[in-house]
Write a structure and sequence with these properties.
about 725 residues, alpha+beta, Immunoglobulin-like, Spore Coat Polysaccharide Biosynthesis Protein SpsA, Chain A, 10-stranded mixed beta sheet, 21 helices, globular
């Protein structure tokens, strides 16, 4: 067995230099040394270690080698052969590098041949041959290209189609005489001041950033540049002669916050937008943001974004974001780029604070969101975050001090909005956990409907009693026409426990009615709906959920549920997924953080499962409990959507965990009475909430797939996007 495993994530050329990023681990626990050689001699290379706990977990299942990532740069000359060597003392592995090879790899449209072979089954070959005979060589070739195309190329193709759509929209606006005049100061076309702090920006990157602003189809902008550089470069003389560009050379570098505030002092627009000194805007970025702000009546707007390589040819890792999601924002700065706020909002929120340098944008976003009357989201990739060795887009460990600044920013945010809680960093840099303070004097009533299944119920109740650290709770078991002797014997055992009460529902089975009956007998200030086939994992599960539900703006909180094999059963519910609604990250490994860590962060969703759901009793009464029209299915989703309609948040908490012994393969027999009932209730849900079926889920980006639960982009699913 080889002692070293490695993977090259990306290779690229920047002028004469080769740039490689990836990870390498030693299977024997030693540290991996990295060097570059050419013709037997060592090459002078810049080698930096990166934090890559995800790679360590993928190989070992834990974080034993969290710093296994690497970033390597060296001069790569034409015609020479280089080797990137990994060594751990017990063995070594090497990768051959040539300038010509990098150029070829950079232009790759299809996956390597070995991967093609792994992706192809004999049945696929047979099907391809039938397709060739029926459709002809041209269609057959296109089919193979689409199948074996790299994910990056699929994204590039998708991005091209999006650009074409935006350009067409801008053209149509022009035909309707909605062009963006340079001198227009009307409410319809406000001036947008684009604020850019500069510090030792490489000239090439700087000019590309400026060009992206000059290329905006919305012309009523102002570019505000505050230059705190100390490298002696002349950045003013290379600017074009355009009255919309304001440049100020600072006497000294004032740090990222100070330089940004100096750029803000130049701003004269009704709107302020923020752009990093080496990043790139799409041509329609400002226009799209202005249109969204006016359409939504917003005073704060943000867009989707992606990363771009140094050469501006490779776009990757698109971040398709949620609409405004306050709990997700307290877990990570998902808003980030492209951000635009009204000047009045900026004045109320205040500028950038030096004590939060490294997370100054996070601190500002939190303060601005507190003051905003409406936060809008443009679900389009309008901002390209340049990834290079000094950039946090590439290396999440390059500004380690930033993570503590982010934690303090959330902490102060909670103090300002008068929410009690403590903030800690997670094992993933840039992601945080808020523990909301719960009222531990409150009683919590746990409602468990049950019919027979004595062993299942015993597991559930015993896990609650053994693992719950909440001081005052009661368990109300709603008995529903059981017939076995075993369950009656177990009930007699339970009746001896002061915390447990057995309620007897005599009516016809209706899951909603059974739970409503149970809650009507509850004495608690908080109510938990819990399935009998669950087993509690985390001792502080009630503290977690009660801390969230204590917040007056929250209506419902839901837990993370796992199958017995450790895979995810529930991590939030998204509307329109799988045709109606579905659980996200269904079937994922427990340790898999998911896309942008959304499987493991506290955040808002449209719904959570009723298999483990908490709300305040007054919320339950206000909403009227579960709707009995949903006899079995979708009653929990309907309850959550009614909470949302009442202006309350529905929060998913991954730190409250339980096993759910529901079968992975559970389903309804075709043509059965159960199937007919399920379809009736699904139809009722769709008819009651047509806005979700038409517009989609606000917490799930329309550029994400509706056919898989993994938050993957639609561009990876050809059936959802034809790529044309």
């Amino acid at each position: 067995m080889k002692s070293i495993r490695y993977y090259i994530d990306k290779t690229e050329l920047l002028e004469r230099s080769a740039h490689l990023t990836g990870w390498a681990v030693s299977m024997n626990g030693s540290s991996v040394m990295i060097r570059v050689v050419c013709a037997g001699g060592e090459v002078d290379a810049c080698v930096r270690r990166l934090s890559r706990p995800d790679a360590s977990r993928a190989v070992f299942g834990d974080d034993r080698q969290p710093d296994c990532g690497f970033d390597v740069r060296f001069v790569c000359e034409k015609g020479k052969k280089y080797e990137l060597i990994f060594a751990d003392g017990g063995g070594q592995a090497s990768v051959r590098i040539t300038r010509e090879g990098i150029q070829k790899e950079s232009g790759r449209r299809l996956v390597p041949l070995r991967r093609m072979v792994r992706m192809t089954s004999p049945s696929m070959v047979a099907d391809d041959m039938r397709f060739l005979l029926q459709k002809g060589p041209s269609a057959w070739k296109q089919r193979l290209v689409r199948r074996y195309e790299t994910d990056e190329n699929k994204y590039l193709r998708w991005l091209g189609a999006q650009r074409a759509g935006l350009a067409e929209q801008a053209r149509q606006d022009g035909e309707r005489k909605l062009s963006y005049g340079k001198n227009s100061l009307s409410r319809e076309f406000p001036t947008v001041s684009i604020v850019v702090p500069l510090y030792n920006t490489p000239t090439k990157f700087y000019l590309q950033m400026v060009d992206s602003v000059l290329s905006q189809t919305y012309e009523n902008w102002q570019l505000c540049l505050a230059d705190g550089s100390d490298d002696g470069a002349d950045r003013k003389s290379c600017l074009p002669d355009d009255s919309r560009i304001c440049y100020r050379k600072l006497a000294q570098n004032m740090g990222i916050s100070g330089n940004t505030n100096e750029a803000l002092a130049l701003a004269e627009g009704q709107w302020i937008a923020f752009l990093d000194h080496d990043d790139i805007l799409e041509a329609e970025a400002v226009g799209e943001m202005v249109r969204a702000a006016q359409r939504e009546g917003a005073d704060m707007v943000y867009s989707d974004e992606d990363k771009v390589a140094l050469d501006l040819r490779h776009f990757y890792e698109p971040h398709f974001k949620s609409d405004f999601n306050p709990d997700l924002l307290r877990s990570t700065n998902y808003i980030c780029h492209f951000l635009m706020v009204k000047a009045e909002l900026l004045a109320r929120a205040g500028g950038f604070r030096r004590e939060f340098d490294g997370a100054q944008d996070y601190d500002f976003v939190l303060r601005a969101s507190e003051q905003a009357s409406c936060v809008a989201h443009v679900p389009r990739v309008l901002y390209h975050w340049r990834a290079h060795p000094a950039s946090t887009a590439q290396d999440t460990d390059s500004k380690g001090y930033a993570w503590e600044a982010g934690r303090r920013a959330i902490e102060e945010h909670l103090q300002r909005v008068k929410i009690r809680g403590t903030v800690s960093q997670t094992e993933r840099p840039g992601y945080y956990r808020v523990r909301y303070e719960a009222d531990r004097n409150a009683r919590i009533s746990i409602i468990i409907p049950n019919k027979d299944q004595a062993d299942t119920l015993r597991t559930c109740v015993e896990s609650i009693r053994a693992k719950t650290d909440w001081p005052d709770y009661e368990i109300l078991i709603v008995e529903n026409n059981s017939t076995t002797q075993e369950i009656q014997e177990y009930y007699r055992e339970l009746e001896k426990i002061p915390q447990v009460r057995i309620l007897r529902w005599q009516g016809e089975f209706n899951y909603s009615a059974v739970n409503n009956f149970g809650v009507s007998h509850a004495a608690g200030e908080y109510v938990v709906l819990l399935n009998n086939d669950t087993e509690i994992i985390t001792e502080d599960w009630l503290s977690e959920l009660a801390g969230i539900c204590r917040r007056p703006e929250v209506g419902v909180a839901g837990a993370r549920l796992l199958y017995p094999d450790g895979t995810v059963q529930h991590a939030g519910v998204v509307m329109k997924l799988a045709g109606c609604c579905g659980h996200v990250f269904y079937g994922a490994e427990r340790e898999d953080p998911g896309s942008f860590a959304r499987a493991v962060l506290i955040q808002d969703y449209s719904a959570v499962t009723g298999a483990c759901l908490m709300c305040r009793r007054e919320v339950w009464d206000r909403l009227g409990g579960l709707d009995t029209a949903f006899q079995v299915a979708y009653n929990d989703v309907d309850f959550c959507l009614r909470a949302r309609a009442a202006g309350l948040l529905v929060v998913y908490d991954p730190y409250a965990e339980a096993y759910h012994y529901e079968s992975k393969t559970r389903g309804y027999e075709e043509g059965s009475e159960k199937q007919a009932r399920f379809l009736r209730e699904q139809k009722l849900l769709r008819e009651r909430y047509p806005q979700y079926m038409e517009k989609g889920d606000p917490y799930y980006n329309p550029n994400l797939t509706l056919t898989a639960p993994d938050f993957s982009g639609r561009y990876l699913h050809e059936s959802e996007w034809d790529g044309q």
